[in-house]
User: Fold these one by one.
Assistant:
Number 1:
Amino acid sequence: MFAIRKETSQVCDCGERADGVSEQGSFGERVNVAELQKLFEVEVSYSPLKPEAKIRDLVGKFVTFVKSSGETWEDGCVADNPTLTKAHRRRRVSSIRHAPEVYSFNLSWPLLHPKSSLVLETMISLPEKFDLKELASSEGQSSVVYTLKGLVCYSNNHYFAFFRRIFHKIGYVVGSDHKRAEAVASLIKHREIQSHNEWLLFNDDSIATVTDNWPGVIQMCL
Ligand SMILES: [Zn+2]
């Protein structure tokens, strides 16, 4: 359900490639927030946009960062073509063979108490939806869209979690159960169902609805 299995290939800019190194599966993509922050520094400091637009511009950068951190460039051609060393550059590309049902990211923070501006930038950079294609650098990556569903936080020796609950509001569906199921499936397919979100905060034995939108969750984490 959570296992991420990546396969890496080496591709040279001359077109040569060496395929198929399987990487060990993991239960969460590790993300080094200190490295991610370096990207924000470049994006925010040198951006000509106004402050608010600069922040908005960070949405999705998280995914770009994860993709680029798996891609490395080296001099020389691919391994089975060792004579072609000069003026060839090869890069590692990765693909995710089986889309896990749940894609989880494991964010490692550089400090126990990060500045709230760093928390804000990091959380804004997380998109509410992303495609598996955006995470993998291989061109043949199949497309699977994920929606941000939850966030488990550790702070002050304490765990708490935010999870999204989606209600589907269906206009008018009648008929037998079978017909009803078919009608709902068709509405979902044609995006005629309006979704209403609720974000729940799980904290020890309390569960409370805290907001109906992701920016509301971000605000609570600052
Ligand atoms: Zn080459």
Note: The longest strand covers residues 158-169.
Number 2:
Amino acid sequence: MEKKQYQLGDIVQMKKPHPCGTNEMEIIRMGMDIRIKCVGCKHSVLVPRTKFESKLKKVLRSNAEATEETS
Ligand SMILES: [Zn+2]
């Protein structure tokens, strides 16, 4: 299994879509817990890191790549 790489500002896809129908979440805070914000309805949730990693499907857009292009 490959290790999932994610960081602050990344847009990620979870295994289960948000109830609003959107399956894109933005990582807005990282620590012991990770706060993710639904791109569709702007609702944010705080989840423990371990739970987040088990629910994470893939990283759709990496913030690191985006900032490299603009600088
Ligand atoms: Zn939503």
Note: Residues 18-70 form one domain.
